[in-house]
Design a protein that fits this description.
By secondary structure, the protein is of the alpha+beta class. It has 9 helices and 17 strands.
Length: about 375
């Protein structure tokens, strides 16, 4: 082979027919493909003949993009070796404290990739994983990411989103037209970034992530506040319509006769007037006890915790009458009295007793000392 030309930077390795280069004591050869001339690093096995097997995508990222951008004199970025817990790991690209792994296929197991993540992090590095999805576009990703439909792209996404890189927001996908960073901490689950942003802004990616998460949380907070405001306005409009409906109902509906009585009676009226503008709903029940029929009429405010409990007590009079089918028991109800309680938040405001048209305020019972 020809004597390699010694260079200091990868950018000096210009593909030229028959020309070899020496960089960081590694050998690179010119590959003069008509479609894409490039330089390729030679492996250093015992026979010194086999090439280092990398996909074009992996090679371009490791050398053309990262080493070309960050390689220094006497300090390479590619294939750095570290030992963690007596296990050797070769980092695809190491730029200061950022350890980047490039993965071209699905063949490597998640356990293997997770072990790399753990080792890189344990060694004090920021671990990144970049996945080759350049057979797909961003629009294909966006339409696939949040669906359950099984497609070739979905299969790849499902695998890598289970990785430790993904859980830590350190997973990137390389598409035809952009890159995507998976971010579990934001609502949509990902950030769209440019390739140049990843390469040239490598040291600022974490700061950008923090800002994007803050922006997303603020946007979600503002949207939730707006939702609450809109709901409040809708509730107010609905309540106003209900007030208009109730205004007529409280005068015309027979169920509200005792409600009207309380607001008309001079003894009870001062206690109920503060709630005059509120909308009430009606509930009724009854029970028989010791020969008396007790009917309960409750008027509950929908705007506060105020309620009117109006109980009528009637004596049951049973008489036997002759019919063509024989004797039958006839029941009649003779009104005896009514008991009225005004409550708010389960606390009794006042009690009244009505006999005929006579209404009396029942004094508050005081516990003996």
């Amino acid at each position: 082979m020809k004597e390699p030309i010694k260079v200091k930077y990868f950018r000096q390795c210009i593909p030229t027919k028959g020309v070899w280069y020496s960089l960081h004591e590694d050998i690179f050869i010119s590959v003069m493909l008509r479609s894409k001339p490039h330089v390729r690093r030679k492996a250093i096995p015992p026979d010194n003949k086999r090439d280092n097997k990398l996909s074009d995508w992996h090679r371009e990222w490791q050398y053309d993009k990262i080493e070309n951008q960050y390689g220094e004199v006497g300090k390479k970025t590619y294939e750095e070796i570290i030992v963690v817990d007596n296990e050797t790991h070769i980092i695809d690209s190491l730029v200061k404290n950022i350890a980047i792994e490039f993965q071209h296929t699905l063949s490597v197991s998640l356990d293997e990739m997770d072990s790399r993540y753990i080792a890189h992090k344990q060694h004090g590095y920021v671990p990144y994983l970049v996945i080759n999805l350049t057979d797909f576009t961003f629009s294909e990703f966006a339409s696939t990411f949040s669906t359950d439909e099984k497609t070739p792209l979905k299969t790849k996404l499902d695998k890598w989103t289970k990785s430790e890189y993904s859980k830590a927001n350190k997973l990137f996908f390389d598409f035809q037209d952009c890159m995507v960073r998976l971010v579990r901490s934001i609502e949509c689950g990902y950030l769209k970034i440019k390739e140049t942003q990843f390469i040239e802004g490598l040291f600022n990616l974490e700061n950008e992530l923090v800002e994007k998460i803050k922006e997303d949380r603020e946007r979600v907070r503002q949207r939730e506040e707006q939702r609450i405001r809109d709901k409040k306005k809708a509730d107010e409009r609905a309540l106003e319509k209900e007030r208009e409906r109730f205004y007529q109902e409280k005068f015309d509906n027979p169920d509200f006769k005792f409600y009207r009585f309380c607001f008309a009676n001079p003894i009870i009226k001062p206690y109920v007037m503060p709630y005059n503008g509120e909308v009430f709903e009606y509930w009724a029940d009854s029970e028989t006890e010791f020969g008396y029929l007790e009917k309960y009429h409750r008027y509950n405010s929908k705007e506060s915790n105020f309620e009117i409990q109006y109980k009528t007590v009637s004596k049951i009079i049973e008489t036997e009458v002759q019919t063509y089918r024989g004797l039958r028991t006839k029941k009649e109800y003779k009104f005896d009295h009514a008991e009225i309680q005004l409550k708010e938040r389960y606390k009794t405001i006042a009690k009244f007793k009505r006999i005929g048209n006579n209404v009396q305020l029942i004094p508050e019972e005081k516990l003996p000392f």
